[in-house]
Design a protein that fits this description.
The complex is a heterodimer of chains A (376) and B (426).
Chain A: H1 27-32, E1 36-43, E2 46-51, E3 56-62, E4 67-69, H2 70-83, E5 87-90, E6 96-100, H3 106-114, H4 149-158, H5 160-163, E7 174-177, E8 191-196, H6 208-211, H7 214-220, E9 226-232, E10 238-244, H8 254-258, E11 271-276, E12 291-298, H9 305-321, H10 328-335, H11 337-344
Parallel strand pairs in A: 7-8
Antiparallel strand pairs in A: 1-2, 2-3, 3-6, 5-6, 8-11, 9-10, 11-12
Chain B: H1 7-11, H2 20-28, H3 33-47, E1 67-68, E2 86-89, E3 96-98, H4 99-112, E4 116-119, E5 126-129, H5 133-146, E6 162-163, H6 177-187, H7 189-193, E7 203-206, H8 215-218, E8 221-227, E9 232-233, H9 235-243, H10 263-268, E10 276-279, E11 282-285, H11 295-299, E12 304-305, E13 310-316, E14 330-336, H12 345-361, H13 368-375, H14 377-384, H15 417-423
Helix pairs in contact in B: 2-3, 4-5
Classes of the chains: A alpha+beta (376), B alpha+beta (426).
Chain lengths: 376, 426
């Protein structure tokens, strides 16, 4: 019996949740669950976990696009069937991990991966750049201010050697979100690439009556820039609509989320901001937010060369200047943000000074600062 | 054969990183609608704007989430993606898969969709990209009956919970993140599938303060493993690191010559509380002053391990900047035993206290972190019924504007101004 369109509720199964994770653990993981002693990265992209039992689990980590086909996944399954007893896993950063239970099985696995062109780069461990977590972008989202997969591909091509090596002062987490909704949550990344809008919403008076709850559109604005108003649609009818006080708009796009008749995306208005110095881990210092250092770079598909150059520049200045273990944000705080701008040769603009809520905490209320070239 | 010229996208077939363009072309041989994905994306690259319309509500019967409607705004040019909905599948905790299951999911998606996926979405779901409304019910039937898979969350509901890989392959996990994540996912299926909240609500579970799943930055309810007792020290292994027998930081820095490992500068001096010191070749830790940042353990995993009295710290209210600005989750419950035998009743109690309150006072599209900002942390802590602790703050308030309650003030607030004037003239 399959699905019966005449009787869709027949034999319906709901709310079963995901399958239990224990069904898909490799045997060496099942056997040593909760009994791991320590780990070591034996070469970039290859981890060894030692268990109390003496067992060893070798993990080979490969980079993958987040947007991948089932054909590509099937090829990964072929590899897992050939080497890993039919198991594999994904990491929280879109990498894929192949696990084997002895060192002897690592070389054949690496050889197999290498034989398949550039599809399965090994790396993403330790003091390097691991995979970029990101959002949908133009390939499947309705609110983006930039693409995601395209920018990420261009950046990772340029940072590739940092993915396959471990030569940085600490791990560097790069993330991309294609609009301020940040479903990619880039607000705590070492280097964040963020799509931003710069034009206030338009008002589609032919659509607003049918598509929008006007009070919801008004209350969606955090700055009270949207007010109720009468307008005339293209048929000449007077309708209930809204006006936008453009000078108050901070281009967050929340109104468009609530009201599809208020689009704000624009080829010239949209682009990318760069934020740096965030971290999630508690290691040494507390978690930190990413800070806005480059307010706008225009979208320049297909390879966004200006964004790629900006990310690489920050990464390489950091790599040269930071102390061992220092994350980007810890380095910037130690040298001071004025020195960060100086060393990275990034022009400091008024746009990096916070004037939104909670802004006061970011202002300098001290006589302690460094005389960088900013002070004439 | 390609349906559209894609000169800009073709540029993204170059370079060493795996190309999603090459991959979509590969899939197009089996799923012709993929040519229209490329065609529409090429147009977006040319126009520098998205060509997807706003929203569209679609779903399967009885569910209010898990499927996201998506429609092209240029359907005539690209009919293969005219209707191109997203299906979110709840991922297994820790994202381990058998190839048998993975192939079955691929086959399902070949039959009912475009063959393109996200592994995984930002919240953690296995995301299937691109199908039409008429495929949803038959696909859901097959998914639940033959694959034992279910949809994840979307909209103003509990989003699909996610966790780090925890005890399955990490020596630092202070509780079984996968077990708790799976338990709560099953316990709250209704909340995941039927939106009833003011806005989205996320659970994330990290096994230790390294927080590999970014719980403190991304979840309304973050459960982050920690311990109460002393860091376990193997002094022989400490000496091993000092002698250079073991690679510091588990070999994470081996790509550059950083010189000989120096325990004083690389461990002791970087301790944020200064609670460690060397006595000869013996490492000493004043555990009462340790804040469990993980640095020393990260650097010397063979020598140092978290304690054995383990549990989790509960932090509440993280979110990305929309709308009031980014928030990290605020430490609410410093230590909780993560107890499977009681079916995690302490965790469940804490979650439901938050929900009961937030569903009443939260405004439409207000994350719980914003509700806490609006009413103040003291009010939230009172709602939670937790002991009020200095650990709840980084520093005490610097303004004196305390909201005293009448019952806290001797004699109450009712006074007679006439009596007052008898003593104090106007």
């Amino acid at each position: 019996m399959g699905y019966d369109p005449k009787n869709p509720m027949l034999d319906r199964i709901t709310d079963i949740g995901p399958p239990h994770y224990s069904e898909a653990l490799p045997p060496v993981i099942t056997k040593n669950f909760g009994k791991w002693l320590y780990h070591e990265i034996i070469q970039p992209g290859v981890l060894m976990h030692k268990a109390e039992s003496g067992d060893e689990c070798y993990t080979v980590r490969i980079g993958a696009a987040r947007l991948i086909s089932i054909e590509h996944i099937r090829e990964m399954c072929d590899i897992a069937d050939a080497h890993c007893e039919g198991y594999l896993r994904w990491t929280t950063r879109n990498n894929v991990e192949f696990m084997v239970d002895s060192k002897a099985k690592v070389e054949p696995l690496l050889k197999d991966l290498a034989s398949r062109g550039n599809k399965f780069p090994v790396g993403g461990t330790g003091a390097g750049v691991t995979n970029i977590v990101h959002t949908q972008g133009w390939v499947h989202c309705h609110t983006p201010a930039t693409d995601a997969s395209g920018v990420v591909k261009a950046v990772m091509d340029e940072l590739f050697d940092y993915f396959t090596s471990m030569s940085l002062p600490a791990q560097v987490r790069v993330a991309l979100a294609c609009c301020l909704n940040m479903c990619g949550a880039v607000h705590a990344s070492d280097i964040a690439i963020l799509g931003v809008h710069r034009k206030p919403p338009m008002i589609d008076t032919d659509a607003i009556s049918g598509l929008c709850e006007i009070p919801l559109a008004i209350s969606a604005c955090p700055l009270g820039a949207i007010k109720p108003a009468k307008a005339t649609n293209s048929k000449g009818e007077e309708i209930k609509s809204v006006t936008v006080n453009a000078e108050r708009c901070m281009f967050c796009g929340n109104c468009y989320t609530m009201c599809p008749a208020m689009p704000l995306a624009d080829p010239d208005g949209d682009g990318i901001a760069i934020l740096v110095g965030g971290k999630v881990s508690n290691s040494r210092s507390m978690p930190k937010f990413s800070k806005l250092v480059i307010p706008f770079i225009p979208n320049n598909p297909p390879r966004w060369p200006e964004v790629v150059a900006a990310v690489k520049n920050i990464l390489e200045v950091y790599a040269k200047d930071a102390k061992k273990y220092e994350r980007v944000g810890e380095w910037a705080e130690r040298i001071g943000w004025e020195m960060f701008f100086e060393k990275c040769k990034i022009p400091f603009t008024i746009k990096s000074i916070d004037d939104y809520r909670l802004a006061y905490d970011t202002w300098r209320t001290s006589t302690q600062f460094k005389f960088t070239s900013h002070i004439k | 054969m390609p349906k559209h010229d894609t000169p800009m996208l073709d540029e993204l077939e170059k370079g060493p990183w795996p190309s999603f363009v090459t991959d979509i072309k590969r899939q197009a041989a089996q799923s012709p609608q993929c040519w229209d994905i490329l065609g529409q994306l090429e147009l977006s690259f040319k126009d520098k704007i998205t060509h997807w319309k706003h929203g569209g509500i679609v779903g399967v019967f009885g569910y209010g989430g898990g499927i996201v409607g998506r429609y092209s705004d240029v359907p005539k040019q690209f009919p293969g993606v005219a209707h191109f909905h997203t299906v979110r599948l709840a991922q297994p905790s820790g994202m381990y898969y058998s190839t048998k299951k993975m192939r079955a999911i691929c086959d399902l998606w070949q039959k009912y969709g475009s063959g393109m996926t996200n592994m995984h979405g930002s919240t953690g779901d296995l995301v299937l990209l691109g199908t039409t409304t008429d495929q949803l019910e038959p696909m859901f039937y097959e998914m639940t009956h033959d694959l034992n898979q279910d949809l994840g969350g979307s909209g103003s509901n509990l989003r699909t919970p996610s966790c780090c890989l925890g005890m399955s392959r990490c020596e630092w996990s202070c509780y079984d993140t996968q077990a708790l994540c799976h338990f709560l996912t099953m316990h709250y299926q209704d909340e995941i599938h039927r939106p009833a909240f003011p806005y989205k609500f996320k659970f994330k579970f990290s096994g230790c303060p390294n927080d590999c799943v970014a719980a403190i930055a991304r979840s309304d309810f973050a459960v982050i493993g920690t311990w109460k007792d002393d860091i376990r020290i193997d002094q022989a292994a400490v000496k091993g690191y000092m002698k250079g027998d073991f690679k510091a930081n588990a070999g994470a820095h081996s790509g550059r010559d950083w010189g000989k490992f120096n325990i004083q500068t690389e461990v002791v001096d970087l301790c944020p509380t200064g609670c460690m010191w060397m006595e000869g070749e013996t490492l000493k830790i004043d555990n009462a002053n340790c804040t469990r940042c993980m640095h020393c353990i990260n650097v010397m995993p063979r020598a140092l391990r978290p304690g054995v009295e383990t549990g989790a710290t509960i932090c509440v209210g993280a979110k990305a900047p929309i709308l009031d600005g980014a928030q990290f989750a605020t430490m609410t419950i410093p230590f909780m035993k993560i107890d499977a035998e009681s079916e995690y009743s302490d965790v469940v109690d804490a979650i439901e206290k938050i929900w009961d309150w937030w569903m009443e006072v939260g405004k439409n599209r207000e994350r719980v972190g914003e509700t806490i900002q609006r009413v103040g942390l003291p009010t939230f802590l009172t709602v939670m019924g937790v002991d009020i602790l200095p650990q709840h703050i980084r520093e005490p308030r610097s303004n004196p504007y305390v909201f005293w309650k009448e019952e806290e003030v001797e004699g109450g607030w009712t006074r007679d101004v006439k009596e007052f004037r008898k003593r104090n003239a106007q």
